[in-house]
Design goal:
The mean pLDDT is 95. 42% of the residues are buried. Helix 10 crosses helix 11. The strands form three sheets. Strands 3-2-1-4-6-5-14 form a seven-stranded mixed β-sheet. It is an alpha/beta fold. It has two domains: 150 residues, Nucleotidyltransferase, domain 5 (2-Layer Sandwich), CATH 3.30.420.40; 181 residues, ATPase, nucleotide binding domain (Nucleotidyltransferase, domain 5). The protein starts with a strand and ends with a strand.
Length: 355
């Protein structure tokens, strides 16, 4: 029996949709939402009808009958911390996302849109590997300041999907392996999967700098800069996220432009670019200690994993820890669909959300 799964991934100015029949991608489409349209809404929840109607209109235009679908999956939004894997979308989840989300975020619309389409089709809606997945060890939550508790904020969807895929490729179960994964994108995050659970992470603000984020910076100097009188809060936040990393050093967040600069003999560009890879390698080594060095595999994924230069620099420093597999790309739509495919096939069980 084959399964047809519609995946929905709302972003800040677009909604991506994709249809999969088993593992095969039937189509993938990005429905853009111009800034002038988004600005008409006071908050994310007010965008629900507009986005849902666009998705439905696109499916109608394609001539696709939603009655043929087996399931619909939406990107998991800003719920309270949840486990990894699948959850059935229910009224409790929808109420939480609408009235008490942990944060205002476009992903909060993934579950409601999926639910509306699934309800019309008479099938179930799911989320998979929510951005709020949190399975950290208690010891990993200690930050050094009682005022601040570490929480799990990383690229869960893609990193966990790649770990599952890599384990299967080796004829092993994900639940039997220890895997360190680095997601290399506009933001860089790393995590360690211990026997099927993400037990510790390095978020994009406590680890390597990236094309647009400053990552981990010296705390004392950061405090001095914050109180120097030169910058207000919003500017400092942009220095950390948006105007940090490669953009701050080299004036671009495009890794391809940086590599062109290096090809043209720019030594500063080479130093900064290699420093980013160097910090990723340090993060991998840091997370290897969580499982006492018993690492079965290291995975490099995300858009920058397409760079042979960056991946070669990282691999050179960490290959002594474990074999390194390069699995480039964001892979979000595939990750959503494949996750629910495993549920439909009985390989995984979907949880029921309770607040």
């Amino acid at each position: 029996m084959s399964y047809k799964i519609l995946a929905i991934n709302p972003g800040s100015t677009s909604t991506k949709i994709a249809l999969y029949e088993d593992e095969e991608e039937v189509f993938i489409e990005t429905l853009d939402h111009p800034v002038q349209v988004i600005e008409k809404f006071e908050n994310v929840q007010e965008q629900y009808e507009m986005r849902k109607d666009l998705v439905m209109a696109f499916l109608e235009e394609k001539g696709y009958d939603i009655g043929k679908l087996s399931a619909v999956v939406g990107r998991g939004g800003m719920l309270p911390p949840v486990n990894s894997g699948a959850y059935v979308v229910n009224e409790a989840m929808l109420d939480t996302l609408k009235h008490r989300p942990a944060m205002e975020h476009a992903s909060n619309l993934g579950a409601p849109i999926a639910y509306a389409i699934a309800k019309a089709a008479g099938i179930k809606a799911y989320i998979y590997d929510s951005v709020r997945t949190d399975e950290l060890h208690h010891i990993a939550r200690i930050s050094g300041m009682p005022d601040i508790e570490r929480t799990s904020t990383c690229h869960v969807l893609n990193t966990r999907a790649m770990a599952i895929k890599a384990a299967k490729k080796r004829g092993k179960r994900y639940q039997d392996m220890n895997i360190v994964v680095a997601h290399l994108g506009g933001g860089i995050s790393l995590n360690v999967h211990e026997k099927g659970r993400i037990v510790d992470i390095i978020s994009d603000d406590e680890g390597p700098f990236s094309p647009e984020r400053a990552g981990r910076v010296p705390c004392r100097e950061l405090v001095e800069l914050c109180y120097s009188g030169k910058y207000d809060k919003s500017i400092m936040q942009k220095k950390l996220r948006g105007n940090g990393g490669l953009r701050a050093y080299l004036g671009t967040l495009d890794a391809r432009e940086v590599e062109k600069m290096i090809e043209d003999g720019d030594e500063k560009a080479r130093l900064i670019y290699e420093a980013m890879a160097y910090q990723v390698a340090k993060g991998i080594g840091e997370l290897a200690t969580v499982v006492e060095g018993n690492v079965d595999l290291i995975i490099l994924t995300g858009g920058i994993a397409y760079s042979k230069l960056v991946t070669s620099w990282i691999k050179r420093r960490v290959k002594y820890i474990a074999p390194v597999e390069i699995m480039p790309g964001e892979n979000e739509m595939e990750s959503l669909a494949y996750g629910i495919l495993r549920v439909l096939r009985g390989e995984e069980e979907a949880r029921e959300y309770t607040e």
